Fold each of these.
Amino acid sequence: MAQDIRKSIIELKKTTQSTSALVTKINSIVGKVNYDESAAAVLLSDTVSTNQLKTVFENLEKSSQDIKSVSQNLEKYLKEISAGEGTINHLIQDKAMAGQLDSTMINVKEAAEKLNENMEALRQNFLFRRYFKKQEREKKKKP
């Protein structure tokens, strides 16, 4: 038992010496830091920088929560699509609806082209020509 106590005391001395050396190293490092110019000094002493840093971390946390919420919503929508539910699924999966949408878009395009033709014909019509020329003159006058 006495031998164990001696070993413990020797180990305790080694630990104390190591701790003392570590504290010396830390003091040396801390002593080398120029507190007037270092970032650590600014963060530790400047309340404005501290508050700004705090705001940055709060914003990061809020953004993280928002991203988590968005990803949960996306996961929910993807599950609905995979399960064959929801409007998006009908748009993606229903070939008849896709054909109707294509047909509708073609009709809209054709109607727009015909409307452009009719407007051009109206511009050339002698009853409306004066009106359109007047509009063009006013348009040129404006900067």
Amino acid sequence: MRAFVTGITGFVGGHLAEHLLASGDQVVGVSASGRFPDDLAALAREVRVERADLADAETDLAGLLARKRPEAIYHLAAQSNPRASVDDPRGTWALNLGGTLNLLSAVKAAGLEPTPRVVIVGSGTCYGDPAPEFIPVSESCPLRPNNPYAASKAAADLLGVQMHLADHLDVVMARPFNHAGPRQSPRYVLATLARQVAEVEAGRKEAVEVGNLDVVRDYTDVRDVVRAYRLLALGGTPGEIYNLGSGRGLRLADALETLRGLASRPVEVRVDPARFRAVDLPYLVADASRLRAAVGWEPIVPIEQTLADMLDDARRGVERG
């Protein structure tokens, strides 16, 4: 299958590219940088990456798609950090909604036959802080996004539905809940915990500094997440939205205890009030039964393995400096 990935040089994009190649697909992609980071340099030998700004309506995405003729398009490119979205709401909306509009408009203008399947990657954060009767969270839960990232992702999903109904595009929407794995940026909580534990091990830090560890999140290994994206490219119903999650809650304090148990030396923990978020949902777990019924997906990587792999990756990062 010929695959086209937006945001291919990012955390999830790199894992998706690896999975697609392992599945025998031909892979090309675009990103704002136009190049893989150093830890993904091996992918550059097999995957061509074009530099493109999806938020710029003048970018000739239609011409690019007409040349590449993909059978599946995975739309990952986004401003993906909720906290950063509060600092830059306009930029977040421009990329997350505007970039999706530009991509889908380009798919329509390219007039490819057969029409490619487009997998739009949204976010489970669009449900906000669901009432107890909506947990675990299914796709029928009301949307109550409480930051620009979540709101722009919800709007992009609705745009996908609209362009499927009005323009007959072959679009499915994935709403992944929290996911993590090796190579994730320390901007995200499990990655920063792993990085800090590795720094304590190496003697570069006295203690792990934490915020609110009582929140519970549904974490799925990124390698399971990208498997689900490919399954949705092969199956699923056009115009449908699919939650993606393990269905199990992970308390952040328990995740940290797992990392401390893997450490080669005792790890002190200190609470840092600056790390507490102004809005922090206490409990968010997915109901992914629609996805399971549609494509037979199940997560296979246990969270303990995810955390061990993240700590090993963080150790390598600390060694590199």
Amino acid sequence: MQPTPHTSSMTPTRRAAPPPSDAPHEPRLARVAALVAEPSRARMLAFLLSGEYASAGELARTASVGAATASAHLVKLVDAGLLVCEPRGRHRYFRIADADVAHALEALAMVAERSSHDRTWSAPARLRLREARCCYGHLAGRHGVALLERLLAQGGLVAAADGYALTADGVAALARLGFDATALRARPSQRIAYPCLDWSERRDHLAGRLASGLLAHFIERGWLRRIAGERALELTPPGRAALAPWLAAG
């Protein structure tokens, strides 16, 4: 008969840890968060928030990295669906994949600066960016917020199920700026306008096809001017005269 081992000398059996759950019902944030968290990639994404295309070389300079490193970063961002690439001849150009990505990045920026918002946006280096900037093809900053508030106050836009609907009064008011919005209003099945929470102002500015059309119109008229290498937009003297009632600080 074998002796029974003394209890105190027995080694407890370790149970294997359960395999990690895929949790298919939860949002899979880790991969995207890791991509955005890398400083060089974050600078590239921020630069592209204007909605414009940029070459791999421009993005390398923006991120202060070499061409090979920039290319590796860009491959990861395209593979993750954050950027799209358009080859043109020997060059490749990149932009934010869509409005969902742009809005997510803006929201992350607001969360990141939640505790330092007033101090951050009073810095001289950011004042121009706060005044007016391009946000995925539409006007953002103080002027973008003021534009939306003006359209709402005048009844040019009214609340709709998918954002805002453009009224006949709105079409007439925009016509006085030389902007023909009749074609937009003729396609009600396509979303014309909706609110986008502004990174610097923490109020909504105008987004959507109407917003993109208006920004292009303002730039074509020479009322707003792009600043090379920046998202900031400059309100020109003719623009200040033409748009004063629309873009005054709210």
Amino acid sequence: METAILESLYHWFGDYVQTFYSDDAEIQPKVLEKEKHSLIVAGLNRDLARSLGLDAAETQLAEAIGLCHDVGRFRQVTVYRTFRDRDSVDHGRLGVEELLAAGIDGRLEPRDWEALAFAVRWHNAAAVPGQPDARLALHSKLIRDTDKLDICRVLPPSPPADGCSPGLENEFLAGNLLYYEDIKTTDDRKLVMLSWLFDVNFPWTIRELAARGHIDRLLDALPPSAALPAIRRKVALFLAENASRQD
């Protein structure tokens, strides 16, 4: 992707988001939150791409994907007043529809559009469909990592509350990724977010999660339980084995 195209996307994005600015005291903070998140993830995706040694064109494509990955959120929250996909619409799919409606596909080279649309469409999915195109698979992995990284900033854990579900604790100790659909208690959400470690694609992301304090905050916010020492050991072992790997 050329620099001029990336700059034009930033201009388009700013104008697009402003069309969703609202006097509604419930909607406006959510729009601003997602605008900030999108800009931060654009920078994180650029930094991760650089850490992998991608060239300038691929790095700028990664930055564009980070910028556009949550574009469906703005219409979603305006129309449905929620960010819950299961109560409204899949925001990844909606994002691609919004980009098409804005003619973004016509601004990009066909291969760049294909990669951007694929990454946006599947960034929020429980799993990404098998993809023989290594370039599409790579950009999908990048955005899934950096989105998780900033969500940990957006959603800091609350103090211990009502305990974690034993079934989820066991699944975590087995090294399994947990899902929002499995949440039964307030503390289950923290365990779900901690399990994202098992779905991270690049050691860079693991190191950033640790360096920014997200892992320690999640662990410290878990309630006392018989499984907590084992959960802490599981996380420590995972970090020791994976954080120092080469990307």
